[in-house]
Amino acid sequence: MADTPVYNASEPSGGDPLKVDVNAQYEGFEWEYIYIMFCGFVVWLIIPGIGLLYSGLARRKSALALLFQSMMLLAVTTFQWMFWGYSLAYSRTASPFIGDLKNFGLMNVLVAPSPGSPVLPEIVFCLYQLLFCACTVVIVVGGAFERGNILPSLIFSFFWATIVYCPIACWTWNSNGWLYNLPSLDFAGGGPVHIASGWSALAYAWVLGKRKHHGEVSHGKPHNTTLVFIGTAFIWFGWFGFNGGSALNASMRAMLAIFNTNTAACTGVLGWVMVDYIKHKGKFSVVGACEGAIAGLVGITPAAGFVSIWLAACIGFITSIVCASMQNINNWLRIDEGMEVFKLHGIGGMVGAFLTGIFASQSVSALDGSTMDPGGIDGNGMQVGRQLAEITAISSYSFVVTCILLCILKYIPGMHLRVNEEQEMIGLDRAQFFDEQIGDWTMYENTPGVFSSSAKEEPVSPPHEKQPSSNAEESGK
């Protein structure tokens, strides 16, 4: 076996390719970084998957806006990550709370061994972690469901990634981070991705306020269940790379994490469908099954590389039961968070992080040949307390800082976080896009059910338009 590459601080970029063969240091480890690159490609599919999921859950008149945002948020986050995001999260000279700007503009991020694993070139590690950040940002903007202005959401995403995601990623995964050294156990992002996105989406929805005519049946019905199903399939497939690549090597631990991912998603489906079947007196729900899969995936994310297969099944099942039981959480909180990001990602992430502390096993983490992280199964009861510290810190930081950021943006002249009432009534698609397809929909705007096939919803006319009189009224005149 070749010697493991060693980072040389005197050549932070990994060497001059005009003088040496920079590939030579990775001879014997090619499959390691090829595997992580493949996992990165798979993770990328989560982003359009979320776009399809959100688009299907929304009413038709705002469906294209959510597809568009998923693509635009990936573009904005990529720029942020290249600009300073990677450096703030993963610089080798980071403080316990946030990185410095030693890698500003991806300076020296090329072929040197990465801070995450010496067998990965840093450029591979950087791309893989970029996709985690992008997925998280796309999840967060679901909190602006059907009423958030698109341009301000893009500006918000740049700053949210900078002051919320990057510090939390540094806490959790940077070797200098305070949660990393506590240590809290987070294999693939239960804290930085799910808990942070869930609480931030809740903050986004709270600051924007409720949708107009909130409470109507049509607001809670997906317009296209097929898109919901396809989006969930993309997300489920992408999660194999999300969890399977988080070992940062192609070890047996990574293979187990992939098996655990599928297991938890499946038991998540079973748990949620069971709750729906009991609640709705023997009837099923396709959307409920999809939500159950996502709840199981969220729950297993922090635990995938720490627990055995049967305990992964328990985590998926328990997480989905808890999330399905929180069906009325928005009413309890009096916040209109229609995409249920907080219920699935926030609550699901907290349940998963807590159960990781209970079920983590040193014998599982040791499958990569070097990690020895004991959990509750090994008698390490303190790990549950450390997981609670992670949950509390990330929840409070992400919610409070997101609220502050949104309030600052809200009071900047010209920065309208929310569309006006007329635009909300006609839908984000017609209000903010000029695509020919959207123009074609105007022929259906007076046809009942065109915007919501599930709810038989009639489009609401803008406030300034007078509603036509019915035949009965005309005859009365």
Task: Describe the structure concisely for a colleague.
The protein has helices at 30-44, 46-57, 63-90, 122-140, 150-173, 178-181, 190-208, 225-244, 252-279, 286-300, 309-325, 329-333, 341-359, 362-365, 382-410, 421-426, 428-432, 436-441, 471-476. With 477 residues, the chain is mainly α. Mean pLDDT is 89; it is low at 440-477.
Structural account:
The protein has a single domain, classed as Ammonium transporter AmtB like domains (Ammonium transporter fold, Orthogonal Bundle). By secondary structure, the chain is mainly alpha-helical. It has 19 helices and no strands.
Q: How many individual β-strands?
A: 0
CATH superfamily: Ammonium transporter AmtB like domains
Please give the radius of gyration in angstroms.
23 Å
CATH architectural name: Orthogonal Bundle
Counting structural domains, the number is: 1
> What is the CATH fold-level name?
Ammonium transporter fold
Number of helices: 19
Oligomer: single chain
Structural class: mainly alpha
Low-confidence stretches: 440-477
N-to-C SSE string, H for helix and E for strand? HHHHHHHHHHHHHHHHHHH
* CATH hierarchy class name: Mainly Alpha
What portion of residues belong to β-strands? under 5%
Main sheet makeup: none
Report how far the terminal alpha carbons are from each other.
93 Å
Average pLDDT figure? 89
Percent of residues in helical segments?
A: 55-70%
